[in-house]
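Sequence in, structure out. Go.
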Amino acid sequence: MDLNPGTPLHWVDGEVMLRLGIAALLGLALGLDRELRGHAAGLRTHGLICFSAAVMTVSSISLYRQLATGQSGMDPLRIFEATGTFVGIIAAGLIVFSKGEVHNLTTAAHIWLATVVGIACGAAQWPLVSVASIVSVVMLTFLRLVERRWIEPRLAERASDKEKEKS
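Output:
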């Protein structure tokens, strides 16, 4: 069997640690919102998924560079295919349809976001990581405030109106 050359442990340099560390921290930060709201996929799930995606990306890039001899048919973009399939299965398992309502859809989308942020960390695409993290946190916190302030009271009002009509 012909294998790629081993990577000595001393090659775990600051750049690799930075990529993986940032992915882990951002994954935890992304999961904090879900954790505080009592959802099944919280800190640990988001942290692990974001970190795992970064590890897969760093590994894919490393293997591509190690084995790219001009004749190799390796495609590092296949990481998106594999990760998308894997995370899709996890996210789909979170989505529940009960009593005419869909639950955990935002959490499933959030899991996908943690994966993409992890991939971007693994590829050291820092501007993309920054923008994605900031926009996601703003969307999750600001839009939740908007929902609580304007949308939920209107939904409650409509529900009470329907109850009055039935009586």
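Check: Residues 35 and 130 are 22 Å apart (CA to CA). The mean pLDDT is 78.
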